[in-house]
Write a structure and sequence with these properties.
Layout: H1 3-6, H2 15-49, H3 51-54, H4 57-81, H5 87-119, H6 129-149, E1 153-156, E2 161-164, H7 170-210, H8 215-223
Length: about 230
């Protein structure tokens, strides 16, 4: 592929559009940070006063997601406030991408845990929870660091804010989709499939219960306890 093809310019945001996005992003991130802090505080209170209720894998992963969302919003605000090229400009973009991916992977882990424990009704002795957090952090760190190594984070001159550099260039779009947007899209797809599957299974079990056909299944479940979701 020639250099001309690599440098092929695509449509990018105008400075006015970028400014509009910035003015919307600041209050929305403030709301997001407040909501994330609320979830963290509620879980801390549950751990203190209702430890048995708080002892759920999905709750712990939900708190991890809220912490990631808090960091995500913080880095996004910092990237908006950074108005010149330099180390901090690129660093805030990396933090934004890392936290975004981390929050996404934690959400995927919640869906995966439901998939394993509820949909597949896993009764083995493997403690999957011990792998969720380190695997999510490692994967988010590797993916978000690739553009950093290639110096793709920094001042985005066409849109006048910190983001993936050279907005509108074909390679810029490729970097954004391979290290951020594709993972978000796949996450939404997987989580949607799991949610729909859970709803279908709950409805099926309810119908069986209503017709009295769930008795034998419930007895089997009591004899073979599963890990909590």
């Amino acid at each position: 592929m020639t250099e001309a093809n690599n440098k092929q310019t695509l449509t990018s945001l105008t400075a006015e559009q970028a400014q509009t996005i910035t003015s919307i992003t600041i209050p929305l991130n403030a709301i997001s940070m407040f909501a994330s802090l609320t979830v963290i505080v509620i879980y801390a209170l549950m751990r203190r006063y209702y430890p048995a209720l708080a002892d759920r894998v999905s709750f712990r992963l939900g708190v991890c997601t809220s912490i990631s969302d808090l960091v995500y919003s913080l880095f996004q605000l910092l990237s908006i406030l950074e108005t010149k090229p330099g180390f901090w400009c690129g660093f805030t973009v990396w933090g934004f991408v890392f936290a975004s991916l981390l929050s996404t992977f934690f959400s995927d882990c919640i869906a995966l845990n439901l998939h394993i424990m509820f949909l597949r009704e896993y009764r083995g002795r493997i403690d999957f929870e011990r792998y969720y957090v380190p695997a999510s952090i490692l994967l988010a760190l590797i993916i978000s660091s690739l553009p950093l190594i290639q110096n793709m984070y920094g001042w985005n001159a066409p849109e006048e804010f910190c983001w993936y550099r050279d907005s509108g260039e074909r390679y810029n779009i490729i970097w954004q989709w391979t290290t951020l947007f594709t993972w978000l899209e796949l996450s939404v797809l997987y989580c949607s499939v799991v949610i729909i599957s859970v709803i279908v299974k709950l409805k099926t079990k309810k119908n069986l219960f209503d017709t009295g056909n769930l008795v034998s299944s419930s007895s089997s479940d009591n004899a073979n306890p599963k890990f909590s979701c």
